[in-house]
Amino acid sequence: MTIPRLLVVDDDNDTRQMLTQFLQQNGTIALPASSEADIRRHLDTGRIDLILLDVMLGDENGLEICARLRAEQEVPIIMISALSADHQRMSGYEVGADDYIAKPFNPKLLLARIKAVLARARRSSSLVHRRQTKTFRFAGWSYDAKRDEVRSPEGFQVALSRRETALLQVFLANPHIPLTRDEIAGALDVTGDPAETPVDSSGRALDVLVGRLRSKIEKSPKEPQLLRTERGIGYVFAADVISEDT
Known about the structure:
Radius of gyration: 21 Å
CATH topology of the largest domain: Rossmann fold
Strand content: 15-25%
Number of helices: 8
Strand order of the largest sheet: 2-1-3-6-7
Structural class: alpha/beta
CATH class of the largest domain: Alpha Beta
Number of strands: 15
Largest sheet: 5 strands, parallel
Helix content: 40-55%
């Protein structure tokens, strides 16, 4: 298993040392940095899996740094700040931060948040990467990604919309894995047509899309056997999937 490489960015030497040492003692490779120049040097010379970025960096602004980094790459970023008001947290999210934690904080809580962000990043990459297999077979059905064709067990072609096809791809690439609504919506924003409106995981749009797909691939959409609801989580594709290159 790859050991996460974290970048601890803080202009206060004591804080930087404390965080670096704590993270090194808890299964990570933690590297210190105090400026945007340090960040870019580390990014240019080795793999960085996550950046802990203080908002106040002397003469530099962590929010501005986060915005510039996010425009160039997808490395996860957790903002750290003594500013904890809602509008200040929102400023962090608006520039692309993956999480925002206020000082003072429990180091164990920070570690838990780091693990959660890393897990989301790995899962998101998997959702995007693994869907590329050309042909999927499941419960007598087949989906030919090269031809973009879905066929029923009886051999009939079933027409799906672009969003329904993108949703099916996500599930077929991750069988028997409960997926949260956020994970599904995030994957759809990558797989779907960029001209279409992104799916809002917090509303009814995703549930409606799932319902439409069920109506086309389930024998009984009201009692789904393939695309099941996981209460408190989201959805799971409950069929074995065989993938083939064509």
